[in-house]
Design goal:
This protein has 2 helices and 4 strands, in the order βαββαβ. By secondary structure, the protein is mainly beta. The chain has 2 domains: about 1-25, no CATH class; about 30-95, 2-Layer Sandwich (Alpha-Beta Plaits), CATH 3.30.70.20. The structure holds iron/sulfur cluster (SF4) (2 copies).
Length: about 100
């Protein structure tokens, strides 16, 4: 079974893994999961205390951390799951409709 393949409009069904499973690890950067989103998190920087609880629970690469501080969301990768908003202790993340 192939561990790393490029999934795009040129791929044939024979090349896709059974069930479309992603078997390789560390490859979130290759998948722009923001295409799936119907709601999106909005970062309210004024409320954020930089506790960094949100960044490790994000299943994608949507919460950048640099020099010990989180930045604004990278929507290209955010699928709108809302986990980050659930764990934020100070409600610095609000989920809103993504039109
Ligand atoms: S909504 Fe989900 S995917 Fe988007 S930043 Fe929050 S945890 Fe990550
Ligand atoms: S969990 Fe909330 S307060 Fe903590 S870094 Fe993330 S947005 Fe900021």
């Amino acid at each position: 079974m192939t561990n790393k393949i490029n999934i795009d409009e040129t791929i044939s069904w024979q090349e896709i893994t059974p069930g479309g499973n992603v078997c390789a690890s560390g490859n979130s950067e290759e998948f722009h999961t923001g295409d799936w989103r119907t709601i999106k998190p909005v970062f309210i920087a004024d409320k954020c205390n930089q506790c960094l609880l949100c960044a490790p629970v994000c299943p994608d690469l949507a919460i950048p951390v640099k020099d010990g501080k989180r930045g604004d969301f990278i929507y290209e990768y955010c699928k709108g799951c809302g986990i980050c908003a659930k764990v934020c202790p100070v409600k610095a993340i609000e989920m809103k409709a993504d039109n």
